[in-house]
Amino acid sequence: MYPAYPYNNPITVSPPRTLEPEISLEPEIALLNHFDNRLPRELKLGIFSTLVDSYEIEHARDIREGRWTTARAGKEKWVGRDAGLKELVKISRVSRAWQCLAFDGQLWSTVQSPRAFPSDLLARISLNAGPFVRVLDLSGCSRVNSAVLLQMTYNFSVHPDPVPVGHGKQVIPADYTNLTTINLQGCSITTYALHQLLTRSPCLKTLCLRGLGAVTNATCELLSDCCAKLVKLDLGRCANMDAGGVLRLAKASQEHGKKPLRELRISGLKRVSDTIMSALARGFPDLEVLDLAGCKDLTNASLKEFVAWSDGDFPVADRLTLTSREMGLDPGDPTKYHKRATKIRHLSISSCSLLTDMACTYLAHSLPLLEIFEFAGLGNAIQDEGLVRLLNTTPMIRKIDLEDAADITDAVLEILTPLPQPEVRRGGVVVPPLPQPGHALESLVVSYANNLTVDALTSLIRACPRLRTLEVDNTQVSDAVVREFVKQCRTRGTADAGISAIDCRGISRGVCTELKDRTRPRRGWRGWDAKKLFYVDAADETKVEQGQDECEPAKVLFKSFFSWQAVDTTLAARAKVRKALASRRDSAGAEGGAGAGSREGGSRSRWLSPFSSRRSSGSNTPASEVPSPWEEDGRGCIVM
């Protein structure tokens, strides 16, 4: 028989196995996008708005609970509302639907752009936000040019539907924006772009164009025609305009009805005359803030015209009847004089070279509501007589700047020192005493006033319960004044108080050492922009071994020659430690991670005390060791 071969064997084909489906015990769950498909649009916008607010609330909580320190601030550039807006822009890339929500106008009613926002992003925000925007703050955005501003103006404008008129004719109303606040300080724009924006902003209430070369006299005329609701206007330091534009603005206000202008800042204005000041008084009788600092043509007669009263132009309630003595004239003259009682609360006439002490005499009795008075930079032109007459009629004064008034004496301080008044009762009820000048005083600047005595300053510090800032640079103050100021501020619990006594021979090193636990040499603040100033913050987790805490508001700011030496010593010591640590890390890396030897060989650096009794010779700040706050650009400017 032949052998059996495999191919002779019968082939049996087995039926294919059928795979039974696996039975899952878990129920099927449909993945639904409830946010996009179920929630209404208004609720989605509310969630996005809460996201932005949560960053602001969290930042405020960190500050309140003491978790916001200098070290943490140096690592987080975007905080608060800026961080929320940044996240809002980031999540707009999730989908097209989220992009429409993130750039919805209800979330961007305030376009307060950080400097890091590119111009194309600003144009995109304006395109989506459109007429919802109420506040446009582009201060410091140098990259915003005329083209961007024109595009934003068009995007902000409301384009109403055509209105049929007559036999099928259509009249399209002019476009307008809903902007109420505009700040363009620091932008590089042209006059045409600026006028296009102002023409379409009839609801404007606050306008800041400080230092813009695009502002001309025609701009003021445009404001008088198109912006009838202006309350605050800042045209200070605009080089291409003069008093002629302000005159047109004031006359237009007087002819077409009184405008509600309350704040006018025209510092550095050229060609200011008596006519200009008289027109301001009649065109804007309700002014509360007037800034005329640096107006070289302003004279005493101009201020006299500003407070003059004339029948028919002002209400009878604003008329003041004064005697010759109150006017600063011959006391024997029985003639009665009239002045206008203004509503000025803040007046700045610093650095007006033609003014003298007679200006204060003209302003006396006409500023009963005055709170802030800036009259600095005039040197020997300021005397006691007129200044005392003015301050005696300003019981609500809070801040006074008399820097460079070298001839004033203790008579000025005596007027600002309130006297104790006896308690008066009427019908069993205590009658509050009349306010005295100085009872609300918060800030006083009398630098370079060499005739002031220590006793007068000490009495002022004790009698003024709200005094928080005192600048007495280059005066005859002594350690007793500094001790009394620090003592009173600590007793009253005054926050952010400060005294400046630079170039004062009566201040010794001993008072700096004595008060170092209650004072600080610099007013430190916690922020990304302050990280290169190297403020000492005791709230940091790292131990502060040297230097005074500069970020504690309860400590009094004390500026003097010796306290500045302490800052230099602190910066030099910290630079030395950083240099030692850097060299130690470099050597450890070069040896391949052998860091034990470096730890054994090196000892911890000891920082020198900035208040050492040993006097230094030569420069106290090693230029090669003290880090500059501007290391990147190499300018080497140290801001104290």
TrEMBL record:
A Pfam family for this UniProt protein? F-box-like
Gene Ontology CC terms, in alphabetical order: SCF ubiquitin ligase complex
Compositionally biased tracts (Low complexity): 604-619
Q: Which GO terms describe its biological process?
A: SCF-dependent proteasomal ubiquitin-dependent protein catabolic process
Classification via SUPFAM superfamilies: RNI-like
The record's listing under SMART domains reads: LRR_CC
Origin organism is Botryobasidium botryosum (strain FD-172 SS1)
User: Which protein, by its recorded name, is this?
Assistant: F-box domain-containing protein
| Every F-box domain range | 37-110
Q: Where is the composition biased (Gly residues)?
A: 590-600
What are the boundaries of the region Disordered?
A: 583-640
